[in-house]
Amino acid sequence: MFNTFIWDFDGTLFDTYPMIVQGYLQALKEYHIDSTKEEVYQILKEYSSAKIAEKYQLDFAELSKKAKVYEEKSAYEPQSFTGTKDVLSFIVARHKGNMILSHRRQASTQALLKKEQLADLVTEVVGPENNFPRKPDPTSLNYLLKQYGLDPKKTVMIGDRALDIDAGKNAGIASIFFDNEHLLTDIQADYRVTSMKEIEKFV
């Protein structure tokens, strides 16, 4: 069905939200702002980290930088979601490709992939170092489509948030919403799955 699978990373391939949330909670305290895990998580899932800065009228670049420092100090060790290695391997075994499009820095993404022996299953990781506009802007996806000569009709974007799905739409490719928590009900994706295993049917 699809030949190339472009994955979001945080909340899609890896369960990194606990340390991301903690990072923003600690960063907000520097501004004497007391939020809650639930509130920060809800904003991150429904919108993005930029929305946190907007909510509290803070500079996003500065807030994000502070949050990253705290995140890197976190004792939490993120793991991939159940079935991640199986589905990535399933795709590669059928001579198809995996790519990652994330707001996480490439070195961090690669380190987590290598920790679980997943790095060799991914062709390219696009991160903030590429200096593309943030999702849902389609520039980063358009880069991958052009760079690898991908057929838009055979390429799909997979993510756990509206901005991932909208990025796919804006680039003219299909989208799969990874809805493992049943938290967001109004995501207008082409397809919806609740587990990694279900993605094999799109290969």
List the helices and strands and how they pair.
Layout: E1 4-7, H1 17-29, H2 37-46, H3 49-55, H4 60-73, H5 84-93, E2 97-101, H6 106-115, E3 124-126, H7 139-147, E4 155-159, H8 162-170, E5 174-178, E6 191-193
Parallel strand pairs: 1-2, 1-4, 2-3, 4-5, 5-6
Helix pairs in contact: 1-2, 1-4
Features of the shown structure:
203 residues, alpha/beta, Rossmann fold, DNA polymerase, domain 1, 2 domains, 8 helices, 40% helix, PGP-like_dom2, HAD_sf, Phosphoglycolate phosphatase
What is Rg?
A: 16 Å
Percentage of residues in helical conformation: 40-55%
Instruction: Supply the CATH architecture of the largest domain.
Output: 3-Layer(aba) Sandwich
Major beta-sheet overview: 6 strands, parallel
Oligomer: single chain
Number of extended strands: 6
Give a quick summary of the entry.
The chain contains eight helices and six strands. The chain is α/β, with parallel strands linked by helices and 203 residues long. It folds into two domains: 136 residues, Rossmann fold, CATH 3.40.50; 57 residues, DNA polymerase, domain 1, CATH 1.10.150.
Structural summary, described in words:
With 203 residues, the protein is of the alpha/beta class. The protein folds into 2 domains: 4-15 and 79-202, Rossmann fold (3-Layer(aba) Sandwich); 17-73, DNA polymerase, domain 1 (Orthogonal Bundle). The chain contains 8 helices and 6 strands, in the order βαααααβαβαβαββ. The chain has a 6-stranded parallel β-sheet, with helices on both faces. The longest helix has 14 residues, at 60-73. The model has no long low-confidence stretch (mean pLDDT 96).
